[in-house]
Amino acid sequence: MTRLSRLFFAAAIVAFALPSAAAELKVMTFNVRTMTGKDGPNGWEFRRDLFADTIRKMHPDVIGTQELYKQQGDDTVERLPEYTWFGRDRYGKHTDEHMGIFYRKDALKLIKSGDFWFSSTPDKPGTMDWGNPMPRMVNWALFERLSDHKQFYLLDTHLPYRDQDEDIRTRCGKLLAAWIAKLPKGVPVIVTGDFNTGPDGEAHKELTASLKDAWETAPKREGPADTFHNFTGKPTKRIDWILSSGVTAKSVQTITTSKDGRYPSDHFPVQATFEL
């Protein structure tokens, strides 16, 4: 074997041994900020292009959103045609806020999907309980990656926001954890959401009894820990999380993209890269 042949042979062995980029799964959580708020210069019409640009730059495979109105979802896929999205709103229709899940059509196949509500009748759309002033829900899907046919579940949620809702958030966390526990064993689970409470809260404790928080476990972290910044760029709370089981978080990043002093949302999105 010539020296050149040996070099090529060695390179082939290294390339075979290293995990390919296709083995990575990029997951984003992004509170869109509803388009019905009185946001003035931060209204949706002024930031929808920047919202799409932020996603385009990060190129996630799948995104769990919160506060998404149908128009916002449609505006986004119009700008990013490689994505599609699905989900009912919190009343089981398409007139209010959705936990819309976006995914790349060239990377993932949607196997099945569904939703449930945080109430004593979780299968009944629009139901609320425990003192919730409005319905809160979970949108979920089973995906298959086209490159290798590996499957995973993605669940997306948005918990109550008021200070006095901490007990309700804990009950939501318990119901979510119990629902996840009934999923088929051996299939990875990823949860995205705006949990409206910090990692020191009981909801986080309930969920991380069986799931790992990417921000706490990934060996590589970028950006600030806190995510809610109210359009100021100065975050004060870490309420947007990506949790998982059955996969390894390789890195996680809080994305602080802005343009001309404007931000795509009042939350910073978070993106985690997993080895699936």
From TrEMBL:
**The organism's place on the tree of life at top rank:** Bacteria
Q: Which SUPFAM superfamilies would you find in this protein's record?
A: DNase I-like
Has keyword Nuclease? Answer: yes
Stored Pfam families: Exo_endo_phos
UniProt GO MF annotations: endonuclease activity
What are the record keywords, sorted? Answer: Endonuclease, Hydrolase, Nuclease, Signal
Q: Does the keyword Lyase apply?
A: no
Q: Which Gene3D superfamilies match?
A: Endonuclease/exonuclease/phosphatase
Q: Which parts of the sequence belong to the Endonuclease/exonuclease/phosphatase domain?
A: 28-267
Q: Where does the signal sequence lie? A: 1-22
Q: What protein does this entry describe?
A: Endonuclease/exonuclease/phosphatase family protein
Provide the species name: Luteibacter jiangsuensis
